[in-house]
Specification:
Blueprint lengths: L1 H27 L2 E8 L4 H16 L4 E7 L5 H13 L4 E5 L5 E3 L1 H8 L2 E4 L4 E3 L15 H19 L4 H9 L3 E3 H6 L5 E2 L3 H8 L3 E3 L5 E3 L6 E4 L4 H9 L2 H20 L5 H18 L5 H20 L4 H15 L12 H27 L13 E4 L6 E6 L2 E7 L9 E8 L2 E6 L5
Parallel strand pairs: 1-2, 1-11, 2-3, 3-5, 4-6, 5-8, 14-16
Antiparallel strand pairs: 6-7, 9-10, 12-13, 12-15, 13-14, 15-16
Length: about 425
């Protein structure tokens, strides 16, 4: 039995050693890190790309491939991504894919900045005019400076990568675009690959010059591919950093807080509204916000609250609806890429209007209804005199002793009186007609 036990321990230790060796070999085997970028370029996406390139550097990967499909995005986030590519200690390949994808606006800048630029069949690159890319979104004289700056920037990137600088500048100034074949023929990109495997095959033997001047020859044959996707937190933040989602969060926040203010004690609407408000603030921070639009929406819900609390019978609510519509239409700037869907605006306005129709009906009904609680309900009730009223004294009502004053002279103790009104803490009473 002792020998069997020793043999079991030896086999177990050997197995652990073999597994450890296998994991070590796998960890040290050459890999290519692939990042999947799809959607608007914003700070969340910029952080994801930064993390991906950092991971490729830390794991000593052969290269980092950014699989790109974007309509464009924010200038600041685009420049952060490009700076990470330029500073990278591993070759960065931007691959515009899948088929039907595009590298428009900010995506064109990112693609041209890559050490190696590639595109899949049926993709496009270009339309890099800064109206859809800048944080201002205004067509004015100031835009000339922005266009000139963007043109100089993309020309510098193209020249640095030995790509067609003239075409790159025209993509900014004239918003021209090119298919993958046209881009390859004009030296805007380096490769056309049908898929990731085809791209990796074509990368084998390619030479890349890094920022420090070192030349790297890519040996990609038989290399393992490591897909590094957004984690749960990044995916969630990227999802809410969307103009439509941000608008929904802002609407839910204000509506939830409004319900809580108009009906204190419900708690749940206030909690939901507070959470949505914090998420809305984060989302708005990721987008080119027009603060005039935000203020109009805040004014709208301020008017709604005033309507509920003061019962303006529709005047304040009408102003609130107009303010809400105007604020929604101008909430974001930066071109059509950041417009809120008109259908979504219509739905929000209809929901808010419907809510206030019911809320106002309840408020108006409450104002028209005679009060049934509080001291007002004392009026018309009967009380018993405790100590003669000459004309002041005390009466017993609902088991409590109240100071009282007679309107019709002296009333003897033990007689019943009618409460006419309440004056502070004193009941004004009169003798019951027909009493004795």
């Amino acid at each position: 039995m002792l020998r069997i036990g020793r043999l079991f321990v030896i086999i177990l230790l050997a197995g652990i050693g073999i597994l450890g060796l296998a994991f070590d070999v796998q960890a040290n085997s050459p890999t290519i890190v692939v990042l999947r970028v799809k959607g608007t370029v914003n700070p969340v996406l910029s952080d994801y790309v930064h993390r991906g390139i950092q991971y490729a550097e830390d794991t000593k990967a052969i290269a980092c491939i950014i699989q790109l499909d974007t309509p464009g995005g924010l200038d600041s986030a685009m420049r952060d991504i490009i700076q990470d590519i330029l500073d990278s200690r591993v070759p960065v390949i931007v691959y515009v894919s899948p088929s039907g994808g595009r590298a428009a606006s900010a995506g064109a800048f990112i693609t041209i900045s890559a050490h190696i630029a590639a595109m899949a069949p049926d993709t496009a690159i270009g339309a890099a005019h800064p109206v859809a890319m800048s944080d201002t979104g205004e067509v004015s004289q100031v835009n000339d400076k922005i266009v000139n700056d963007a043109a100089a920037y993309i020309r510098s990137l193209a020249t640095n990568r030995d790509r067609n600088a003239d075409w790159a500048e025209r993509a900014v100034r004239e918003s021209i675009s090119a298919t993958e074949q046209e881009a390859r023929e004009m030296k805007v990109i380096d490769l056309v690959a049908s898929n990731i495997n085809d791209l990796i095959r074509q990368l084998d033997g390619q030479q890349v010059t890094l920022l420090d001047g070192s030349v790297v020859s890519l040996q990609t044959a038989g290399t393992a591919v490591k897909y590094l996707d957004m984690d749960v937190g990044e995916s969630f933040l990227y999802a809410i950093a969307n103009p439509n989602i941000a608008y929904i969060l802002l609407s839910l926040a204000t509506l939830g807080l409004l319900v809580e203010i108009s009906s204190p004690g419900l708690i749940f609407p206030g909690i939901v509204g507070g959470i949505c408000l914090l998420l809305a603030f984060y989302a708005l921070g990721m987008l080119p916000v027009n603060w005039a639009g935000v203020l109009l929406i805040v004014l709208a819900f301020g008017l709604f609250i005033a309507e509920v609390l003061t019962a303006g019978f529709g005047a304040l609510a009408s102003g609130g609806i107009i303010s809400l519509v105007l604020g929604s239409l101008i909430l974001f700037k930066g071109g059509p890429l950041f417009n809120v869907s008109p259908w979504l605006i219509a739905v929000v306005v209809i929901v808010v209007t419907t809510f206030f129709v019911f809320a106002l009906r309840a408020v108006i009904k409450a104002h028209r209804r005679q009060a049934s609680t509080g001291r007002e309900e004392f009026v018309g009730k009967t009380a018993l005199v405790k100590g003669a009223l000459k004309p002041e004294g005390f009466v017993l009502f609902a088991g409590e002793l109240w100071a009282a004053k007679s309107e019709g002279g002296t009333i003897a103790e033990g007689e019943e009186v009618t409460i006419k009104r309440v004056a502070g803490l004193k009941l004004i009473v009169s003798k019951i007609e027909g009493g004795h």
